[in-house]
């Protein structure tokens, strides 16, 4: 990395006056910043997607799946964890109260487990009759009310909004924030939101952006002297709020001591009692587990292993349990291939017409009940014909095991394409799913140009999809889209609702958060083969959990490491970072350029010069194919400052459409953690018209404009799952303390042809690469898998 000159080697321009973007002022109660009419956050990385208000019930993340049958809810695994939760509740209560209180805690925890089982059974019954086929609840009540001459749904909503607004105003909420908070409260608590806020003012903490001191002020305004620091309602709300904040940082649980310390810092007189009450109320679930990981102390054979108490939000606890149960179910129901030649096609051989026809259905590719089962000999023949040793190893692992982990960077995608082609040649219903349309299209481009009949059977023609398309979330994530990827087909569903696949290959597996992972594994039938592939060095999911890392640590299945190297200068640099070394590389074609900056203002100036002039002129990479990456949104060199400077140079305008102009480069976040680059085509009263990556066009209504950001500059979390020909990484000095090897590895690895690093972090960059591998996350998945799956690999 000895290069320090500009890639264009042109004369340096006189530095203009530093361009800064004033930091927006948070609303006193809402605690949210507003920029150009859009809600934004100063959190670096964790809050890249829309805020909680944007999700709530309207847009939502994929729901946490219930068990697929009553047997799943009452399985030994589930029963064991229910017992574990009960024991943990007893332990928590014993530390905080009397023996009578412990008995109460155990009884109420058991009641909670029984309620969870009943809910699971009800959800299964609803699925069995087709979900929303029966109109009930508000949807059915609205027509009935209208027929009876009662208020319409719109009138009822307006009445509820006014009531909530009155409560918020009485609690001291500033007038500009009332409308947004009222809408969020109604979405979170339903039509009884006003009453809920009056009865428990600290419920306000459940709304996005509200901080404890703001909720305390709201409670004092409503309750007067009764709003004391030790109010039980305050304790429970703060406990849940701290766990929600931990989830934003990626934790699925917190140690009890850490949660108690957080509550004490917020002025709670009795943190242990508050946790006990939150557990009894069912808002927090306790778990005892053996200490594992690098910090665990070794014990002798005759000693009891050290245990720790973890506390988790109910939704995350259920999601983590569901993901673990689904993986164990897939592994325990797998039937290895049999010897012989019946029932399988030889590699490259097409299925018999009658067999193919028998397995097809109108729902998608081979969606029938019967599946081809290739024999051991057929798998071995496919492995012998593999184009590389890595592909052969992957084929042999997939043949013999239901769950396989595959590690490698973008260069390893060719191995997945070869596996997919070989599996479909064997007659399997094999599909691949990627995090983004970039990964989907990149793998599709590596498939054979003349697909076999098995490949052509897919509704979309190519067996490569995004995860949203695979799971049927495409309509929800891209509502209003038209064009190339808007109606991509998939494998279809079997009679029991599971995906009609025999083998599923998941790219970008480190990006799966717990709730999406639970949804994914729950959608797979018993015995389905699952390959989770990804680069273990890159950033984990934007949501809570670290599924891929926990699986690598738990070792319940074989791991196939890619042997396909990236020999480019960028690949050599990134590989060194992966092992903690920031080394110089030879870059004869200016593939890697390092530039130093004296401060944030100079860093922004140099980055914009690279984007708009140097890289296009010297390397022929246009500005629209180059992205700026920086650790956070705020600050003098965050995404806001960089986007403002880039817009002034590349597409100046007044921002007449909610802060945007036609031609603006944007990133659209339909769901938390999902980010789609695009550009603005125009706008009117109906909303903004966007052209998204992948060929879709989207009409974004005015109510959803806060899901849009300018997209010349992104954070690394926004950039995961895709690559660009040119990347400029900006490292201002104020982000030095938060840098990690994982972040640097991910950001540098987004570049395909050229990487420029504008570096104002001093020695902190090398220190982060050498000494700070990743920001730790507390999760339970590894312990659950260690308890219920053999550590054989």
How far apart lie the N and C ends? Answer: 38 Å
Number of strand segments: 22
Structural class of the helix and strand makeup?
alpha/beta
Give average pLDDT, whole number: 79
The largest beta-sheet arranges its strands as 8-7-10-11-6-12
Q: List the total number of helices.
A: 30
Helix content: 40-55%
The major beta sheet can be summarized as: 6 strands, parallel
- Provide the low-confidence segments as ranges: 1-146, 342-369, 451-460, 473-487
Work out the radius of gyration.
27 Å
| Fraction in beta strands | 5-15%
Basic shape = globular
Description:
This protein has 793 residues and is of the alpha/beta class. The strands form five sheets. Strands 8-7-10-11-6-12 form a six-stranded parallel sheet, with helices on both faces. A six-stranded antiparallel sheet has the order 9-18-17-16-15-19. Strands 13-22-21-14-20 form a five-stranded parallel sheet. A hairpin with a 2-residue loop joins strand 16 (676-684) and strand 17. Helix 17 (413-425) packs across helix 18. The longest helix has 30 residues, at 99-128. The two termini are 38 Å apart.
